[in-house]
Amino acid sequence: MSAEATNPATPGPITPAAQRRRGRPRIDLRRLGRAALLGPAARDRLPDAIAHVAEAHRAHHPDADLDPLRRAYVLAESSHRGQMRKSGEPYITHPLAVTLILAELGAETTTLTASLLHDTVEDTEVTLDQVRAEFGEEVRYLVDGVTKLEKVDYGAAAEPETFRKMLVATGSDVRVMSIKLADRLHNMRTLGVMRPEKQERIAKVTKDVLIPLAERLGVQALKTELEDLVFAILRPEEYARTRELVLENSSRADDPLAEIAEEVRGVLREAGLQAEVQIRPRHFVSVHRVSRKRGEMRGADFGRLLVLVNEDADCYGVLGELHTCLTPVVSEFKDFIAVPKFNLYQSLHTAVARSDGQVAEVLIRTHQMHKVAEAGVIALGNPYAAPEAPSAEEQGDGARAADEERADPTRPGWLSRLLDWQEAAPDPDTFWSTLREDLAQDREITVFRPDGGTLGLPAGASCIDAAYAQYGEDAHACIGARVNGRLARLSTVLSDGDTVQLLMGQDPASEPSREWLEHAHTPVARIAITRWLAAHPAPAAPSEAPAATRRPAADGPAARPAAADVVVDRPGATVRLAGCCTPVPPDAITGFPVRGGVVTVHRVECAAVGRMKEAGRAEAGVRWGDTGECRVTLYAESFGRPHLLADLTEAIALEGVAIVSATVEPPSQQRVRHTYTLELPDAAHLPALMRAMRDVPGVFDVSRAQPQSATP
């Protein structure tokens, strides 16, 4: 966690941090470090070195007790005394800077106390027991949560296991991740003197893990600056071009965004709406995205207008006036007040156009919404403390107890899912790769259960994902689903607002299908299915089943070895289709020589293929030759309903397939299994036939059973 340098990674006069602090004196960390070396102040007053932290803290919490900050600073300064950063600055400047970041965002006293101490246990002789004795269990927990695991104990697994530890700690107290994000931001700001390869490695982890976590926790102020710092390191040429665009725009004589802002102020004054209109410059990554989307950038594209009001109702009043008096771009309207984002974000988004074609995006929110939009969970203060009565200012802002935070803000759905699946991923490499994959999902949907509950899922999730999100590994017994009241396949992709009823089988033999992995989108589902399949491998056939042959006609010679030929690159070899996976054209196939000059043919995804490759067995080149008539046996799994057998046989007949035999097992818990032996005119037609059978209402799965047999 130790920061390495003080040289900024993004040189130049325009930075997001500078934009946010415009109009405020710049904090001189070198001066603060020298002040720290002069020794602790008297116990009855605040050390000068943290006066700026206290000032920022009191701006958000006027009645805060500053004594814990004084004591934490004294301990941190004395513990780190003599330690230097790679830039040559006293080490104490790092925890001071991290604490200032959190103080400016409105973090409460316990978080700031832990932030001042966050490196003491990792880098000094201070112990967690000492922290608990001096500052209490909450501070000890936060410091422990952000303390790295030692490489000497964990080797290459230290980094992923450290993140796992932090995430588990965040599950009990989200303030752990708040400190980690502020710590990473200061380290990224001061990354310049490190070797380029180390800068790149840290930037990649920041991009893949820390930035998505900042987004999910709603801490946009940290997220946007981290994005720009990563952009400068990983894509320096594009960053330089974007920076040049921003500099060129800042030197323009006219500012269309300022003109539109003044016009908006006039509209709102005439309507008698009390509102504050600000210009919000886009950060560099946002400018880059807009330039790629729109091509040539115009003046109004370099920022957005922010309109701040006191009451929720005023947001809609402002929207109505803007759409009435100016030209709205209706396609840009979004209501994140009525439907908040999963990370607590609320605003109205719209856009207005001028006669010259300049379009200005407008964000409309209350002051309280703005605080949450910038600081996310940090704006909640101590989310575990008993709620206080709202202040007069908060009542004037129309605060609604944060809408009861629209769920539990201390344990959002995405975090609960992450904590669930990480328990099933003991391998550090699996955890690390799955974590990055999970955090790469940039949108969340909400689906409703019939009992009134909800499930938060990433966009693209299927009914299979919903089953594992609701039931965990008990979802192995899921046999179907109803989506918005209609029967649906488990592979059905869900949309935001869908109602999902999961149908669970009572048969103890119920088990997940390997095909479920193709439709499982969430780590918790994929890990659970993979674990079950690994524990229940498909049994390898004791001897491969010989390819079925045609029975010779009464007056003719014996037919070819198989109705659908396998061509093998071994002259004289006999070909057999493996009974464990029963390949049929157009399956992707591979072959393995066995004794007696026989080559057995498997589907490439067959479990036996992996075992034979691991055993060092050589493969034989095989491919499908001419296809012809063949027999297959299919299982159709369905829910019981009248006329289902008739509908299935009709669907099969419409595909031009003959039914040799059909059996229907007695229903069990609304689940019915049909077994069909079918004669296909062409083996290549099998996928289309199976799709047609699955399309019959009530059928939720169709699978192959026995190897194909030749037509008599």
UniProtKB/TrEMBL annotation:
This is Bifunctional (P)ppGpp synthetase/guanosine-3',5'-bis(Diphosphate) 3'-pyrophosphohydrolase. Pathway: Purine metabolism. PROSITE patterns: ACT, HD, TGS. Residues 633-707 form the ACT domain. It comes from Streptomyces apricus. Residues 91-188 form the HD domain. Keywords: Hydrolase. Residues 1-25, 386-412, 538-563 are annotated as: Disordered. One of its GO terms (biological process) is guanosine tetraphosphate metabolic process. Gene3D superfamilies: 3.10.20.30, 3.30.70.260, Beta Polymerase, domain 2, Hypothetical protein af1432. The keyword Hydrolase applies.
